[in-house]
Structures are given as structure tokens and as C-alpha cells.
């Protein structure tokens, strides 16, 4: 067979193979065809692993069978369920050769042209390689089947593949045992009919993006505020204790009652929201970790393995994960909130990080996320973040908004020190020097901002509007609060600053905001961990105000 159209039309996902061996020269020719496939930015990131061992094939077959049960449960169609049960994918053991086609994500740790808009372009290059391999094998009289119903985490573990290697799937290679009547097997089994022609539409006009202005109330208003404050203070002072002896707990109880507008405050459905995004500035060596760690940590959040997962579970706090702009395409069924603005900001060392339209969109997305949480009955929300390079973004934003020298706003972030810390400081100073824009806030945010930081700021403003208690985590979240505070200073009455982090600039920023943090535990993890750890103290404030006896009820004499 040599006519390309005939080969393309005959394309079949081979499911059964003969016992004929595959000559080495056939496989090598096919792999060379894969190597000739387009490679974005000449990354040359496609990797191949050949499997001939029966033991390895059996392990992969068992992994398929185990995961196929989960796939079966995703359809409510009885006939499709039965078809799923019948799938044993004997090809994994029948095929003489197993092939893993993968891509190496570590190439993204350096600047790679062609991946600025999407890191996934590297994956697409490997898909092109898979297509070329199939074409070559078909032309040589062989076939290939693609197995994707696998638990990829376990798949990589049993094969001892490095973390940075991402498989497209497991491919079976050999002589086809049948052509299924020259139609796809699933089509022959009446699973679904493939359309006869491609789906193609012409786009003739652009769509204008309309983002409404963020409407805010200037303050939470209680009728007869002075009377309410007097009654609240009397309730606090009447508890069986010396006046003021519960210190910060009394302050928190007073604040909580004021925010909730009741003398009997009760935290309901607390939620910590972790906003994640990537930053172009990370490509300039400002972090000890590669940018891909953002994606890895989001997956860790989704798998329940991060510190914030542990602390939220400990304190019965709902955890929400937001993709604000991670340079990765997460599966559509991932349990996260999709608020992606773009796949990471641009590097503000040379160009604006984002457009002013994207700034507005960040505020709108953040507002919408928090409004949805408030509508479900939550009145207490904590903010956390994840994003390699975001301490650099926060440092620059702090500097340009407050006027503090950048040297006073730069910290270790993920742990950089010595020469690398000095490099980070000098780099950010250069970025500020390169900025020739206005001192107007929105211009500064567009030039230096991060998607997750601005979404947090928008979310905090929305939380204030919805009369929620706002829990502020560490340095980066406090920078987001700084932005929200510049837009609406009244927001401070709802804010609880959970801790002072080990980032040296955090204390300076708290002083600037005249904010007193609850804890000082040398935390600098982010993720909203400070909010979760401080939460039991809020519950203590709530408990003493609502449950502690008064002098009168206990029959105890006052001073």
C-alpha cells in the first residue's frame, strides 16, 4: 500500500494482532518517521520507550482492566456498559511490541520559542510524532493501537518513568489480525458512527469582549451602628472574665459580630480558595523551582496531598482550587474552578504582563467565584495562592503601589538566597526602571500583575460586598489585599490577617496597612495555610461570645 489517501482512509485503531514478529528495521523506520514530525521551537521533546517483556505487558494489561471498570461507570447507557465490560484489550499482550510515546516537560524549564501561549504545544508535537509512526507502520504493512484508558500516575510508577516524562499512552505494534470490515471496531459494534466529513466553519467577524465595571458598596452599613457597638461591647465585657482578658479573641469576636451584623455570630460553611497561575518572570531564574511546579502542585491539591488539604480537612473547611492562568490544560473533569485568563502572564521585565482588559477580566472572575461561594451559604472565606514566581510579582506590586524601594520588598520566595537573591532583586529593580507607564493603579496592575493576585483582589472586594469575613494569608495574599484596599479602603473592617510570614517584606506591608496578624509561626508556604491554621482561633472567639456565661447568668459578682 503506497497511496497516501488510501492509507489515511484505511486508518484503523488496531485491536488484535497476529503472532508475527516486527523486524527491527520496521520499527526503526517508523521511529525515524516520528522523529521527522514537526517539533515546536525545535524542542525535540518526544521520547520513546520500547517494551517486549511479557511481564511488563501483563502489568500494563492489569492496569487497563482495573481502570476500565471506572471508565464503564461513566456511561449510563446499558449497551455501552456491556461493551465496556467486553473490552479486554488483548492487544496489549498479543502485540509483539509495546511502545510508549511521551514528551519531556523539562524542556519548558528554559525559554522555548513557540510555547509562550501554550506549554501544551510540546505535547501536540508528540502527537504529530505518533501520527507519523502510524503512517509509516501502515505503509509497511503493520498496525498500531493506542491505549489511553489507564491510570497515568500508576502507569508511570510501575514503569519507573521520571516525573517530567508525560506519556501520551501505550501503543501496541504488530501485524493486524483483522481490518474489522475496513471500519473502526467501535463503529462496527455500533458504539458510535464517525461523521463522513470534517466539521469546519468559517469565522467572519470578531467578538467584542464586554466586561462590566466592578460595582462595589462603599461600606457595610448597620442601622444605629453606635447602639449596636455598645450592646456588642457590653456582651463581651459581661462574660465571666476580667475586661479585656481574652485579648485578641475579644477583638475578633467584635469584628465577627460587626461583619455578620449580629450579636450572636456564627461562621457557616467556611471556604478557602487557592488561586493558581503562572508568571512570565519565572523564566528569568527568580525561583529555585521550575515553572512546571505550579502545575504539579495544582495536581497535588486535587489529589489531596498538600498542606492546605491536610489543614482544611483538620478544621472542616471547604477547599476550592482555581485555575487562574496555569500554563497547562487540566482535564475538563478535574475538580477545579476554571477561571483561566491565559496560560501565564508575559514577562514584565520587557513587556506588560497583561492587557488592561485582562485586568478587568481578573476582577470579574474573582468576583464571580466568591459570589457563587457566598450564595451557597458561606460567610467566611480564606484566600490562598500558588504560582512559581509570584513572590517576585507581589514584590514589584508592593513597591510601585506603596513607593517602598524594591530592596525592601524582595524576599526569599521559594527559598532563593545569596547570589540568587541578589539576582532576583536586581532583576526586579530593572523591571521597575523599565516601566515608563502611569502611576494610575490599573496601569500598574496591567504591567506587573499576576492573574491569581488580581483574581484574589477581586474576590476580596466581592467578599466585602457579601458581608463575609475575609481571611488573608501571607505576603502574596496581603499584596492582593493591598490592591483591594486601594480600590475600597472600607474592606479592612472585614479582614482578618491570619499570620506574619517569614517573608521580610510581609511585616513591612502589614505595618503599612496598620494590620495586626494573629499568628507568627515563620510560615512562608502560601496555599492559604496561614488561614487554615488560624481558623481554630476564630472559632474560639465565636465560642466564647456565644457560649461563655455572663456574670449575671452565673451569679458571679462583677469587680
Automatic annotation (TrEMBL):
Gene3D superfamilies: 1.10.1610.10, 3.40.50.10210, NADH Oxidase (3.40.109.10). It comes from the Bacteria. The keyword Transferase applies. Residues 8-175 form the Nitroreductase domain. It catalyses: 5,6-dimethylbenzimidazole + nicotinate beta-D-ribonucleotide = alpha-ribazole 5'-phosphate + nicotinate + H(+). The active site is at residue 527. It holds the Pfam family Nitroreductase. Keywords: Cobalamin biosynthesis, Glycosyltransferase, Transferase. SUPFAM superfamilies: FMN-dependent nitroreductase-like, Nicotinate mononucleotide:5,6-dimethylbenzimidazole phosphoribosyltransferase (CobT). It is an enzyme of class 2 (transferase). The keyword Transferase applies. Belongs to the CobT family. HAMAP family: CobT (MF_00230). Catalyzes the synthesis of alpha-ribazole-5'-phosphate from nicotinate mononucleotide (NAMN) and 5,6-dimethylbenzimidazole (DMB). This is Nicotinate-nucleotide--dimethylbenzimidazole phosphoribosyltransferase. It comes from Flavobacterium endoglycinae. The gene is cobT.
Amino acid at each position: 500500500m503506497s497511496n497516501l489517501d488510501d492509507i489515511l482512509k484505511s486508518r484503523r485503531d488496531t485491536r488484535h494482532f497476529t503472532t508475527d514478529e516486527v523486524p527491527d528495521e520496521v520499527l526503526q523506520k517508523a521511529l525515524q518517521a516520528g522523529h521527522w514530525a514537526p517539533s515546536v521551537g525545535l524542542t525535540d521533546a518526544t521520547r520513546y520507550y520500547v517494551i517486549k517483556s511479557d511481564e511488563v505487558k501483563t502489568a500494563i494489561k492489569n492496569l487497563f482492566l482495573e481502570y476500565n471498570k471506572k471508565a464503564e461507570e461513566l456511561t449510563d447507557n446499558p449497551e455501552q456498559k456491556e461493551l465496556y465490560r467486553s473490552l479486554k484489550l488483548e492487544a496489549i499482550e498479543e502485540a509483539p511490541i509495546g511502545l510508549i510515546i511521551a514528551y519531556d516537560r523539562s524542556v519548558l524549564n528554559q525559554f522555548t520559542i513557540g510555547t509562550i501561549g501554550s506549554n501544551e504545544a510540546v505535547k501536540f508535537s508528540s502527537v504529530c510524532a505518533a501520527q507519523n509512526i502510524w503512517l509509516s507502520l501502515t505503509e509497511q504493512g503493520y498496525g498500531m493501537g493506542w491505549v489511553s484508558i489507564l491510570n497515568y500516575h500508576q502507569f508511570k510508577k510501575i514503569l519507573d518513568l521520571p516525573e517530567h516524562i508525560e506519556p501520551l499512552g501505550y501503543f501496541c505494534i504488530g501485524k493486524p489480525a483483522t481490518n474489522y470490515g475496513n471500519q473502526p471496531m467501535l463503529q462496527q459494534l455500533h458504539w458510535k458512527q464517525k461523521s463522513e466529513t470534517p466539521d469546519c466553519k468559517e469565522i467572519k467577524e470578531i467578538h467584542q469582549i464586554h466586561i462590566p465595571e466592578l460595582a462595589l458598596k462603599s461600606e457595610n452599613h448597620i442601622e444605629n451602628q453606635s447602639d449596636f457597638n455598645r450592646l456588642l461591647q457590653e456582651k463581651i465585657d459581661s462574660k465571666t472574665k476580667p475586661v479585656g482578658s481574652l485579648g485578641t479573641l475579644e477583638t475578633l469576636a467584635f469584628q465577627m459580630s460587626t461583619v455578620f451584623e449580629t450579636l450572636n455570630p456564627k461562621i457557616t460553611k467556611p471556604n478557602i480558595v487557592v488561586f493558581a497561575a503562572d508568571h512570565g518572570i519565572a523564566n528569568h531564574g527568580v525561583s529555585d523551582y521550575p515553572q512546571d511546579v505550579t502545575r504539579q502542585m495544582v495536581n497535588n491539591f486535587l489529589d489531596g496531598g498538600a498542606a492546605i488539604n491536610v489543614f482544611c480537612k483538620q478544621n472542616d473547611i471547604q477547599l476550592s482550587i482555581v485555575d487562574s492562568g496555569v500554563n497547562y490544560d487540566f482535564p475538563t473533569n478535574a475538580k477545579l474552578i476554571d477561571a483561566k485568563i491565559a496560560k501565564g502572564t508575559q514577562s514584565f521585565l520587557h513587556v506588560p504582563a497583561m492587557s488592561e482588559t485582562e485586568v478587568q477580566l481578573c476582577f470579574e472572575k474573582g468576583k464571580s467565584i466568591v459570589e457563587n461561594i457566598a450564595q451557597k451559604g458561606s460567610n467566611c472565606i480564606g484566600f490562598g495562592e500558588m504560582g512559581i514566581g509570584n513572590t517576585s510579582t507581589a514584590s514589584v506590586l508592593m513597591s510601585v503601589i506603596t513607593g517602598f524601594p524594591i530592596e525592601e520588598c524582595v524576599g526569599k520566595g521559594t527559598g532563593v538566597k545569596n547570589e540568587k537573591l541578589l539576582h532576583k532583586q536586581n532583576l526586579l529593580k530593572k523591571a521597575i526602571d523599565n516601566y515608563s507607564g502611569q502611576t494610575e493603579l490599573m496601569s500598574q496592575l496591567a504591567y506587573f500583575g499576576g492573574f491569581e493576585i488580581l483574581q484574589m483582589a477581586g474576590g476580596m472586594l466581592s467578599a466585602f460586598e457579601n458581608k463575609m469575613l475575609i481571611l488573608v494569608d501571607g505576603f502574596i495574599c496581603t499584596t492582593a489585599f493591598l490592591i483591594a484596599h486601594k480600590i475600597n479602603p472600607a474592606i479592612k473592617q472585614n479582614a482578618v490577617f491570619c499570620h506574619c510570614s517569614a517573608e521580610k517584606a510581609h511585616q513591612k506591608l502589614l505595618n503599612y496597612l496598620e494590620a495586626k496578624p494573629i499568628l507568627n509561626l515563620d510560615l512562608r508556604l502560601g496555599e492559604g495555610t496561614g488561614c487554615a491554621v488560624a481558623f481554630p482561633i476564630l472559632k474560639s472567639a465565636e465560642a466564647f461570645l456565644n457560649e461563655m456565661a455572663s456574670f449575671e447568668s452565673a451569679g458571679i459578682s462583677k469587680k
